[in-house]
Design a protein that fits this description.
There is one protein chain. Helices cover 35% and strands 19% of the residues. A 7-stranded mixed beta sheet has the order 3-2-1-4-5-7-6. It has 262 residues and is an alpha/beta fold. The chain contains 9 helices and 7 strands; from the N terminus they run H-H-H-E-H-E-H-E-E-H-E-H-H-E-H-E. The chain has a single domain, classed as Vaccinia Virus protein VP39 (Rossmann fold, 3-Layer(aba) Sandwich), CATH 3.40.50.150. Helix 1 packs parallel to helix 5. The protein is globular and about 45 Å long. The structure holds S-adenosylmethionine. S-adenosylmethionine binds next to helix 1.
Length: 262
Amino acid sequence: MPKATNQYYEDEKAKWDSLVDAHYAQHPEKLLLRPEQDFYSYVRTDKVASAYPGTKDFFGDIRGKRLLEYGCGSGMTASLLAKAGADVTAFDISEKSVATTQLRAQLNNLPNLHAQVGVGEELPFPDASFDLAFGRAVLHHLDVDLAGPELLRVLKPGGKALFIEPLGMNPVLTYVRNHVPYPDKNPVGDDRPLTYAEINKWGRGYSDFHYHEVHFFGMIVRAFPYRWHVRLPVLHKVDRVVLRYAPPLRRFCRYVLIMLEK
Ligand SMILES: C[S@@+](CC[C@H](N)C(=O)[O-])C[C@H]1O[C@@H](n2cnc3c(N)ncnc32)[C@H](O)[C@@H]1O
């Protein structure tokens, strides 16, 4: 189904409303951050963000920066960004996700986190409103021809954007995604992991644009329970060497980190 149609939006809203409800409605205690958690600890330790060493320094000091978070879901990364001192505006198409993000802000005492309903294809913000933009697993839900120019419009000159996305160039992964069950898998919707053609469209109009594929061998832990993920740093190191010396393998990675500077 083409993205940015009413039906696509309705399906996305229904899916994410019900998922966020299932995870958090009965368990608001899951929304509390641990004392050591913030955006910096996240980029240093998250299995995808930390797979590329340059991620942790890309934004620099985010304190006091106006930051837009795309497709915030239940507000986990929005609250980490706010806890690290950014002035965060988060949006999502799903009303229940936005309400959960607002509750997370309240429970974690983060008055600098504001969440609202919105779609990436039509942002309700003036031109040059944000220093930074961040999104995790959201660009591949958007129509790049409409949402790409919107991101460029709302970023300030010199503004930066960082996105962590699934990469859709590996036919085996596409098969697994569509047909094979694995732990913690979300229901498959009409979204599609990003192709290189789409990634290049997201990069149009920026003074600097680069991306880094991650999780070649690293992806195998996804098939195992969470406790196995401690093995990841070793796999990241192996991946870095393999992908450096064999660039044709990069397209088969599971994730891509996209970095834009206006
Ligand atoms: C895979 S979830 C990621 C949520 C969150 N970023 C995270 O990492 O947990 C994708 C999110 O994008 C939202 N979404 C889907 N299409 C959207 C659109 N067109 N505009 C804004 N948000 C959208 C969904 O409601 C959902 O919360």
